[in-house]
């Protein structure tokens, strides 16, 4: 799933290519992708893109007075093409969910197509979402977002206030978009590893020192990931994300800090990875799902 660093890199990538360009056509190809109906997608035609913004994991394409808001969810992705085919694709069972064409530049040959992008989604769980709204806060997921962790106003005092009274595990709190916007399963693992902290600790029980350590790990981990991704084409961002992970997705591999084996806890629809030596005092965390399977 693309998280804050990848979505921020996509924002930069698209800003360079969309700003000042006009939309020629937008065609949804998957029944599930479009979540709004008023205004219609045809209202984008002829509109000029003023810029691209990011709200947590949401991309916001500002076209005229409208906002085309994209949420890539778990298996969605954006594929830029300098020359999209002029003929519309046929809806089918493939991964293509939506296509957006730009108007041709003055020196372009219209016979070979114009630039634009495809939204694709792999797998059977279709969660990719596209909204066309007049105000970005009309998107429910955006309206519910907590503060952005890389914003200048996201201070240690703000972070401490978000954790105060939290009775949930710190891993879940970091992932809760209503608390902090943009962090998902992968970067919450990375942040907790950098902070040398168990994902099972209660967020509201952290000491002032632990909170300060977690805050620094959060900001540093996300900033470093953004810098690793900046300047790369959209198609290479997934690989950049995987290559930068120290524990997430590396079950069974040695921890790059201490050399202990990275372990995993499985849940119904996800898993977390951690280093016992760095994060839990050498003790493996209980994996109830695996324990049930082994009975």
TrEMBL record:
Q: Which GO terms describe its molecular function?
A: 8-oxo-7,8-dihydroguanine DNA N-glycosylase activity; damaged DNA binding; DNA-(apurinic or apyrimidinic site) endonuclease activity; lyase activity; zinc ion binding
Entry's Pfam families?
Fapy_DNA_glyco, H2TH, zf-FPG_IleRS
Q: Which cofactor does it need?
A: Zn(2+)
Query: Which top-level group of life is the source organism from?
Result: Bacteria
| Gene Ontology biological process terms from the UniProt entry | base-excision repair
What is this enzyme's catalytic activity, as reactions?
Hydrolysis of DNA containing ring-opened 7-methylguanine residues, releasing 2,6-diamino-4-hydroxy-5-(N-methyl)formamidopyrimidine
Record domain FPG-type: where: 246-280
Q: Which residues form the Formamidopyrimidine-DNA glycosylase catalytic domain?
A: 2-93
Kindly give the SMART domains that the UniProt entry links to this protein.
Fapy_DNA_glyco, H2TH
Sorted keywords for this record are: DNA damage, DNA repair, DNA-binding, Glycosidase, Hydrolase, Lyase, Metal-binding, Multifunctional enzyme, Zinc, Zinc-finger
Question: What's the family?
Answer: Belongs to the FPG family.
Q: In its UniProt entry, what is this protein called?
A: DNA lyase
């Amino acid at each position: 799933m693309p998280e804050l660093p990848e979505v921020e890199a996509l924002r930069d990538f698209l800003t360079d290519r969309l700003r000042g360009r006009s939309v020629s056509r937008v065609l949804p190809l998957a029944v599930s992708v479009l979540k709004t109906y008023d205004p219609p997608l045809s209202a984008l035609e002829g509109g000029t893109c003023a810029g691209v913004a990011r709200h947590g994991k949401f991309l916001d394409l500002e076209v005229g007075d409208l906002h085309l808001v994209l949420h890539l969810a778990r298996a969605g992705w954006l594929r830029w093409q300098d020359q999209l085919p002029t003929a519309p694709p046929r809806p089918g069972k493939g991964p293509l969910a939506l296509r957006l064409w730009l108007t041709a530049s003055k020196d372009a040959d219209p016979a070979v197509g114009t630039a634009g992008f495809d939204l694709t989604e792999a797998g059977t769980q279709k969660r990719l979402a596209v909204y066309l709204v007049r105000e970005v806060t009309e998107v429910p997921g955006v309206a519910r977002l907590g503060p952005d962790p890389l914003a200048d106003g996201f201070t240690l005092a703000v972070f401490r206030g978000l954790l105060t009274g939290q009775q949930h595990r710190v891993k879940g709190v970091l992932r809760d978009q209503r608390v902090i916007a943009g962090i998902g399963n992968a970067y919450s693992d990375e942040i907790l590893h950098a902070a040398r902290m168990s994902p099972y600790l209660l967020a509201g029980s952290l000491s002032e020192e632990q909170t300060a350590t977690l805050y620094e790990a959060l900001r540093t981990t996300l900033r470093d990931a953004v810098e690793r991704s900046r300047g790369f084409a959209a198609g290479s961002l997934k690989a950049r994300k995987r290559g930068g992970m120290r524990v997430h997705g590396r079950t069974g591999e040695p921890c790059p800090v201490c050399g202990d084996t990275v372990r995993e806890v499985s849940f119904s629809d996800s898993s977390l990875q951690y280093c016992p030596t760095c994060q839990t005092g050498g003790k493996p965390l209980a994996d109830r799902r695996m324990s049930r399977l082994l009975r």
